[in-house]
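As a warm-up, study this chain.
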Amino acid sequence: MDLHEATQVWIVDNDVENDVEKIQSCSQIVDAACLLRDGEVVAFPTETVYGLGANALSNESVEKIFLAKGRPSDNPLIVHIGDKGQLSTVARDVPEKGDRLMEAFWPGPLTIILPKTDRVASLVTAGLDSVGVRMPDHPLALALIREAGVPIAAPSANRSGRPSPTTADHVMTDLNGRVAGVLDGGPTGIGVESTVIDVTVDPPVILRPGGVTKEQLEEVIGPVELDPSFQVGAVETPRAPGMKYTHYAPEGEMWLIEGTPGHVRVRQADMLRAAKENGLRTGVLVTDASAAYWEQNADADVVLSVGSADHLDQVAQQLYAVLRKFDEEKVQYIVSETFPRVGLGMAVMNRLEKAAGGRILSV
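Now compare it with the structure written out below.
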């Protein structure tokens, strides 16, 4: 791919960062939007993670996303819009349940699978007849999309398979010199990607758990189903990002251990000792409640907490940063705690299972 001599980084003034109209007129937004219209790729913050954006109506532009990320071309992208007026450009025949979800959760961390229009670049949908669309709940993202004047296709702004970026520094670590620019909006809020729900079928099906929970969706539209493809390797044709390949993974081998707390801790210690005997630098991903124990235990070289298990929003927000920290610490072997698969815990566990490549032990 063509490398950029230097990736431009823009920081928007703090005094306008929550006013979309003021932001849209900022020179940083105008410059970034100009690059998008010219067919370049630009990373930007959303309320979930940083996205890597390109004009969703241009195959030539979208191809640069795949090249920059090293992403398989059969993995579809989500299209981001800046207002409801852009929806008809990319989607048609919106079901009534889709309208209700938009009313309840847009702007926000919900991607809705809809029948696509012919204007959507074929690379965006990986040849499918449907497209995932969302309206991000972040003033910089909305201002950028509106100023660009086109819907923006944007997966997470990281090298394919790596933990998603929740800061501009994460983006630069992975993509410096591979993209035209990065819009720095500080750390993201939610920390895990949007929920993806397919409303082209009835009952609707969650293809990826995320910032909007199954319980919240059912309050608005009634029963929804869970796609079995949450498990690694369960499908051959992804219908949404993150369904087919190992994602979010640290460089070290990672294992999830689930069961009663006492049995989990014993098995984790045994695995860590065995790894150290094989000369590996070890790490353990824990919650605040068990961090003190592991910090006093010599079995793990690096102990990192993702926060309190009682506050899964905190866990989700910190998860990717912690996975990246293991890489910074050169950890080669990681064992992790698990979380209940309800509410936001479903999204957290989905990301952990993908990060571990399906390596899960029950004790």
